[in-house]
Design goal:
This protein is of the alpha+beta class. It has six helices and 15 strands.
Amino acid sequence: MWRFTVDSDAAGKRLDHFLQDKTEGHSRARLQAWIREGRVLVGGRPAWASQLLKTGQEVEVSPGGLPPLRALPEDLPVQILYEDESVVAIDKPAGLIVHAGAGAHSGTLVNRLVHHFQSLSGLGGELRPGIVHRLDKDTSGVLLVARTDDAHRALAAQFGGRTVEKIYLALVNGRLRAGSGRVEKPIARDPMRRTRMTTRLGSGRSALTEYRVLERFDTFTYLEVRIGTGRTHQIRVHLASEGHPVAGDRLYGAPNSEAAPRMFLHAWRIAFTSPASGARVTVESPLPPALGEWLRRLRSG
C-alpha cells in the first residue's frame, strides 16, 4: 500500500492529478480505474477522481493489477449502422462494455473496433481510440466513433455545444400522470455507493433530461427521452429521482422481476453534423427483439 500526505502545494488539486504527480509509470487512466475500484481512500473513505484535496489529508492507494495500456484487436462482430470518412455509427448491444476499465480489459467494443478499422482517432488515448461518448454496459443503441482526430474534435464540439440530438426509448416503473416532463437536477457520484450517481446532494454537474409519454400500461410507462447533456447514468438517475426507475434497473431501485430480460433503456436515435460532408445525419437503431417482446407482452396484457 502507498500512503501520501497532502501538503500545502498540493491542496486544491484533483485526486487523480495528485496521484499522477506522486506515482511514476502509471497513466491517469489506470489511476482513475483504481479510484473507481475503491482502491484509493482519502481520509479513510472511498474517493472520486475529481475530488479536490485539502492540506493534511491522508491518501492511501492499494495498487491493482497492470492491464495493458492499449486496446488490443479482437476479431468479434461489430454492427455498423452508418459510416463515412470521418465517423462510424455502431449499434451497441446490451451487455457490451464500450472500453477497458475496472475489471474488463478484453471483449470490449473498442477491442472490436481496433480489429475492424485500420485507424481511429487517438485523442481518447490508446485505451479509448475513437470514443467520443459512451453508453452504459446494459444500454443498447447508437454510438458514434470518430475515425480521425479532426473528426473527434468536431464531434466533441457538437456534444459540448448540445447540437447532437440524442433520443432514447425507456420503459419505467409506475404510471406517469403528466404527458411530458423535464428534469434538471445536478448529478454527482454517490458518496455512499460509488457505483451509483445521485441527485440528492443538490450539487454536482448540471444535467438536462426531457421525456414524453408514448404509452401507458398498468404498472409501467413507455417514454421517449431526450438528453441535453451526457452525464454518467443520467437518464437512469434522473428518472429514478422522479420515482420512476427504468424497468429492470436494480441499481436505481427497480423491483426484481423475472419478466425483465434486461434494463429497458435503448439509445434509439442520434442526429449530428458529419465532419466529413457537413451534412446533417440521423441514425436510428431498431429496438432489440428482447425489448420489443417485452412491449408486446405488456400490450397483450
